[in-house]
Amino acid sequence: MVDKICSTVRRGIYMVCCVLLACQVLIVSGVAASRYILKHTPPWGENLALICMVWFCLLSSAVAISEDLHLKVTLIDNFISDRTRTIMDLLDLLLVFIFGVVMVFGSYGLLELTSRNIMSGMGLPSSVLYAVIPVSGLAFIIATIDRGRTLLCHLKQ
Questions:
Q1: Which residues contact 123 (CB under 8 A, 6 or more apart)?
Q2: C-alpha distances in angstroms, 85 versus 73, 77, 89, 154?
Q3: Which GO BP terms, alphabetically (predicted)?
Q4: Model pLDDT for residues 20-78, shown as the tens digit of each residue
Q5: Among 48, 128, 144, 157, which residue has the fewest nearby CB atoms (within 10 Å)?
Q6: Which of 108, 92, 74 is nearest to 143 (CA)?
Q7: Helix (H) or strand (E) run with residue 17 in it
Q8: CB atoms < 10 A from the CB of 69, how many?
């Protein structure tokens, strides 16, 4: 049951990231073409591309955590046993889990503060940009649970 939930969340986040990246490429290309061909820059283009980029970067981090694709220093991995490496990976996941919890519960003050600030050209509150923090924090939590279950199974073997 947990595998199915984690897998569904991972696929959903992956699809959202694909859409966000495609939108960002289209928006930036459209704004650049409009600027040089039509001599007019849409006022919403830069902010919308920024929203897509921030949401993509933070959400794709959750996919990297669950699939163990994030950047890490592996120099010490060559000198330790598989069991020790797995324990270190579990400790790493515990820290990411704590960071995800902090992101979820610590971001509400920021969202409240930025809800009074309006993004120029779009008329949306800046909290739209920062709303990804609790969402990606929740995704981090789910990703660490998913990856942690895999590592615990590996540790038991």
A1: none
A2: 12, 6, 6, 11
A3: C4-dicarboxylate transport
A4: 999 999 999 999 999 889 888 888 989 999 999 999 999 999 999 988 887 777 778 78
A5: 157
A6: 92
A7: helix 2-33
A8: 11
Would you give the end-to-end CA distance of the chain in angstroms?
22
- For 83-143, the DSSP string reads HHHHHHHHHHHHHHHHHHHHHHHHSHHHHHHHTTSBPTTT--BTHHHHTHHHHHHHHHHHH
The whole-model pTM stands at 0.88
**Distance, CA of 121 to CA of 117 (rounded, Å):** 13
Q: How many CB atoms lie within 10 A of CB 82?
A: 11
